[in-house]
TrEMBL record:
It comes from Leptospira terpstrae serovar Hualin str. LT 11-33 = ATCC 700639. Residues 359-623 form the Flagellar hook-associated protein 2 C-terminal domain. The gene is fliD. Keywords: Bacterial flagellum, Cell projection, Cilium, Coiled coil, Flagellum, Periplasm. Signal peptide: none annotated. InterPro entries: FliD (IPR040026), FliD_C (IPR010809), FliD_N (IPR003481). Required for morphogenesis and for the elongation of the flagellar filament by facilitating polymerization of the flagellin monomers at the tip of growing filament. Forms a capping structure, which prevents flagellin subunits (transported through the central channel of the flagellum) from leaking out without polymerization at the distal end. PANTHER family: FLAGELLAR CAP/ASSEMBLY PROTEIN FLID (PTHR30288), FLAGELLAR HOOK-ASSOCIATED PROTEIN 2 (PTHR30288:SF0). This is Flagellar hook-associated protein 2. Residues 12-108 form the Flagellar hook-associated protein 2 N-terminal domain. Pfam families: FliD_C, FliD_N. Belongs to the FliD family. Its main location: other. Homopentamer. One of its GO terms (cellular component) is bacterial-type flagellum filament cap.
Length: 640
């Protein structure tokens, strides 16, 4: 009788091999879930890149539709290189202006005389003046280094100091104004003689008195001032009245009163004295001549005792005072006793010993008109919409050129086109379909070690995009193409209606049709530069315009593109966010299944081993019984 054995053992396989094979077969669901996770993670990466590219295009588009988009930025230059630089706003008029720089603004530079390097200076105070500013320095005493540190710490906004060592025993203190210009020259008050001992200034003199000039107001030639605010001004019975005590200005009236033309010096002020009751605050003003026209300054002034002090020098220094503006918003008349122009003396009471360089103003001529300014930089009040810096004196007149700067607008548009093309190209790649690619029907034997359920899937995915058939991306591609090729109403007669008008297209005439169909944009740089130079506002309107004049951009390539991109990039409920969240949930679910199945495999393998142990034990017993029976039967037959 033949011995009873397991089928696996008959083929030469031991029990452990059989168990491993069975466990491996039971593991197949894990491979499927792992493959799904690999696919989901790849999709998440793709969606992440879609978000990056759509956000980038969104950012570049917003830069184009912004109110500050620099399509109409103009630049400033000179026919002689290095004379002038600057920028011009869209309000500046293009063209050339005759320009001549006759003198540059400079700083006030002073030098002391040589003194003992080891000198000890007493404690005390001194004051430094520059223009309308002043700083009082409290000096604790010490040598020249301590003096320069004190000036740096307490008056560093007005003056810069340094020590020059002449020889081993002697040094010189130098001081330079921080600001350029004649008005910013340094002046000093030295009551304790500190700066004199430092060799910088001479003897401190007593201060001079103010110069007072009584102004005569011609009320017969007065004119009503702001009648809509001071409503009784035009009433005949409410006019100004001259009395022995002064001028009476009635309630709720205001007038501009001419005076003899008088020059306003630096720091000068108008002192208006009243008699009797008067409001704590009155609105007062002046009229003055500036650059060929009459200007007015009108503001509320607080009363100090019986006087109102109007700081005329702050607004019209070195200009001609022509009128005084009086108003009365109170309910009772106000009696003006006198109006006086007060000119304080120069603030400095100690003269510098040596002037290395005087403070000078910038002197320029534009179209033959001479203009002075305190500084060489950021001059923005000479020509409308223009700010420029002056760098050197000209030997002869040059041209100031104001022209459209197309570089910034061109760069913005190029960045936008690049962002558009990157998104379009990537979207087409990840949704492409290989028409000839088919999933193989060939199946390998389960006994083959190469068997893998994910293999055919990834073979097919290598022939098509990972998001092939994804409707949301295909809609995005179609919308981008439609937006780039649509017609847009031009708000102005000379405006542009399609992107091809400004040199942006999917290909020149006669280009390969397949490339045109790809939808990638190309720039005709020559055409773009031309339209940006000639009609920058038209280019801007093509990307964003306000057709109904409600101060809201509602039409244009950029506006429509932002509407298309918005659903993809919304933080909470955007398309990309929703897709990624769904994929994350899929991966989390599969990971849970994998973990549970791996726990199952441990117990499954243990059960198999236990069963095979019982079977092997049974086989062993059967084999022993068989041998016994066979031996006994052989003996019985042979023995007889």
């Amino acid at each position: 009788m033949p011995a009873y054995t397991m089928p696996g053992l008959m083929t030469g396989q031991n029990t452990n091999d059989i168990v491993k094979k069975l466990v491996e077969l039971e593991r197949r669901p894990i491979k499927r879930w792992e493959t799904e996770n690999e696919y989901s993670k790849a999709q998440m990466q793709i969606w992440g890149e879609v978000k990056n590219l759509t956000t980038n295009l969104q950012t570049k588009t917003r830069a184009l539709v912004s109110f500050t988009a620099p399509f109409a930025t103009k630049s400033v230059s000179s026919s002689e290189e290095g004379v002038i630089t600057g920028e011009a706003s869209r309000a500046a008029k293009s063209g050339n202006r005759a320009l001549e720089i006759t003198e540059m603004a400079s700083k006030h530079q002073l030098s002391g005389v040589a003194i003992d390097t080891d000198i000890r200076l007493p404690e005390g105070n001194f004051t430094i003046y520059s223009g309308k500013s002043k700083e009082t320095v409290t000096f604790p005493g010490g040598g020249l280094p301590e003096l320069t540190n004190a000036i740096k710490n307490m008056a560093g906004g007005l003056a810069e100091t340094s020590i020059i060592k002449i020889d081993k025993d002697s040094s010189i203190l130098t001081v330079t104004s921080v600001k350029t210009g004649k008005k910013n020259e340094l002046q000093f008050s030295d009551p304790n003689g500190i700066l004199k001992l430092a060799g910088l200034v001479g003897e401190n003199k007593a201060g001079l008195e103010n110069t007072n000039q009584l102004l005569s107001l011609d009320i017969l030639k007065s004119k009503v001032w702001e009648p809509t605010k001071f409503k009784k001004s035009e009433t005949e019975t409410e006019k100004l009245v001259q009395t022995e005590e002064g001028i009476s200005i009635k309630a709720d009236t205001s007038f501009s009163i001419p005076i003899a033309v008088t020059e306003i010096k630096e720091r000068a002020f108008v002192e208006i004295e009243v008699v009797g009751e008067a409001p704590a605050v009155m609105e007062l003003g002046i009229g003055f001549e500036k650059e060929g026209s009459v200007r007015n300054k009108f503001l509320p002034i607080t009363k100090t005792e019986s006087k109102y002090i109007f700081p005329a020098g702050d607004y019209a220094s070195d200009k001609n005072l022509t009128t005084i503006i009086l108003s009365n918003a109170a309910t009772t008349p106000v009696l003006i006793k006198s109006v006086t122009l007060v000119t304080p003396p120069p603030p400095g009471t100690a003269e510098p010993l040596k002037v290395l360089q005087e403070g000078k103003d910038l002197k320029i001529k534009i179209d033959g008109v001479e203009i002075t300014r305190e500084t060489n930089d950021a001059i923005a009040d000479v020509l409308e919409g223009i700010s420029f810096n002056v760098h050197k004196v000209t030997e002869k007149p040059v041209s100031l050129k104001i022209h459209v700067d197309h570089a910034k607008g061109s760069a913005l548009i190029k960045e936008w086109v690049d962002a558009y093309n990157e998104l379009m190209k990537f979207s087409k790649e990840v949704t492409s379909v290989e028409k000839n690619g088919k999933i193989s029907d060939k199946k390998e034997s389960d006994d083959s070690k190469a068997a893998d359920i994910s293999r055919d899937f990834w073979d097919n995915k290598s022939k098509s995009g990972i998001l092939a058939g994804e409707n949301s991306i295909q809609r995005l591609i179609a919308s981008l193409k439609t937006t780039a090729n649509s017609y847009y109403p031009a708000p102005k007669d000379n405006g542009f209606k399609v992107l091809t008008d400004i040199g942006i297209s999917t290909g020149a005439v006669g280009s390969n049709w397949e490339k045109i169909q790809d939808g990638l944009l190309q720039i005709d740089q020559e055409r773009l530069v031309s339209v940006l130079s000639e009609n920058p506002d038209g280019v801007r309107d093509l990307f964003a315009s306000d057709p109904n004049n409600d101060a809201k951009m509602e039409e244009g390539v950029g506006i429509r593109l932002l509407e298309i991109l918005r659903p993809y990039n919304q933080y909470a409920s955007g398309i990309v966010t929703s897709k990624v969240k769904l994929l994350e949930e899929t991966v989390a679910g599969n990971n849970k299944k994998i973990k549970e199945h791996e726990s199952h495999l441990i117990s499954f393998e243990a059960k198999l081993k236990q069963r095979f142990l019982y079977m092997e034990q049974g086989v062993g017993k059967n084999k022993s019984v068989g041998n016994y029976l066979q031996n006994n039967m052989f003996r019985g037959n042979g023995g007889e």
